[in-house]
Amino acid sequence: MHGKDPYWEAANVTDGWNWHQPDGTATPAHQPALTRPPVSPPDAGSPWWSDALGDPWRDPRAPAAVVLPTPPGAGGAAPEPVTDPDAAPRRGMTSVLLISIFAALLAGSLGGALGYAFAVRGGVAGGTVLGSSGEAPEVAQRPPDSLAGVAERVSPSVVTVRVAASGGSSVGSGFVATADGYVITNDHVVEGASGGATVVFSDGSTASGSVVGHDAESDIAVIKVSRPNLVPVEFGDSEAIAVGDPVLAFGSPLALANTVTAGIVSALDRTIQSGEPGGQVRYYAAIQTDAAVNQGNSGGPLVDGAGRVIGVNSVIKSLAADEEQAGNIGLAFAIPINQAKRVAQDIIDTGKARRTVIGATVADNGRNPGGGVRLSAVDAGGPAAAAGLKAGDVVTKLDGRLLEEGTDLIALVRKYAPGAVVTVEYRRGSTKQTASVTLAADAK
């Protein structure tokens, strides 16, 4: 149907439907022939006319219009505010702001309380706590066979030796050999001493000492101190060690007392000749080690992994021509303790050491073109002569050790005690022979 219903027109649409006559007046109470069925009035408390869409007299083709609120002063009553009963109630911005401020204050107070609790527990209030807040742990005891355990056990027996000489003073090392005060050191530490020696112990205490005796060629000296409760070292067996065994070197390198360095046995029976031209010549069939040894270590003990002394630190190799500028390059040498102990015992017992000889003279200290060491002379009645050796014979081995220079024969012989029997292999012309030689002490 086109056109408007002569009786009803959808004039206004708000949140429901209000019906008016075409002239805009309200529907009269009486109806013409076309009458509306009775409809329950809308709930006065609700803005919705819940059955408006079900009104049988509503023209579904009638246009809808949105009715705006009547401006103030325009006459007529303002429409009742409309709200959605199913919508969540809106809070004002003031409430949201107050809740946010309260939450922030609560979080700040809680954080401050926790921070203060942690600070007080850590022993610091208001500052940064570094490290663990727990109690300091007890210091762990090192196993006796560890390097630290060995160092702790040996250090009380190691001393620093200070000697005044005509040319100044020297500083070396040493170690307590007996409970009654005998100290072993190097001869070159006490060389030229104009008086006694001062011995400094690991705890810093000192004692005056006197030089009992020394042997220049073997480079061993003995000092005596008077001091109670001394702890002597434990001696090892230098013949029982092997290349690769761990070792510790003790002493006062460059006057730095109570120094311990570690390394291994690098070589055995390393023959060394030292001494200034025209001065004292010393021979060593030494234990070679890569443990750091410097000036001032001389006379200090070289110990094995069990803390037993196996050598006396004595010599270093250096690239520096000047002895005063020489320093460690990983080549250090110690007198085998079997030899050092024997010489020290002689000095304590008799005031001097016996020197072991073979009773022959080597041709020179250079290398023999055919290998081995040529004998230039043999002492009549001496050990070599008694074993059948003659001048001109070339000794190639001593107890299985190859000889290449005269120094090798002299140093190896010095290592043995007088009376020791050694096997000598030699060459006479084109014939190779073997002899057993009983070494002896020299007549000095």
Automatic annotation (TrEMBL):
Q: Name one GO biological process term.
A: proteolysis
**Transmembrane annotation, as ranges:** 96-119
Q: Which GO terms describe its molecular function?
A: serine-type endopeptidase activity
Q: Which SUPFAM superfamilies match?
A: PDZ domain-like (SSF50156), Trypsin-like serine proteases (SSF50494)
Give the matching PROSITE patterns: PDZ (PS50106)
Q: Which UniProt keywords apply?
A: Hydrolase, Membrane, Protease, Transmembrane, Transmembrane helix
Location of the region described as Disordered in the Swiss-Prot/TrEMBL record: 15-86
What are the PDZ domain coordinates in residue numbering? 347-404
Q: What is the similarity comment for this entry?
A: Belongs to the peptidase S1C family.
- Which PANTHER family does the UniProt entry name for this protein? PEPTIDASE S12 (PTHR43343), PROTEASE DO-LIKE 8, CHLOROPLASTIC (PTHR43343:SF3)
The protein in question is named Protease
Which species is the source of this protein?
Phytohabitans rumicis
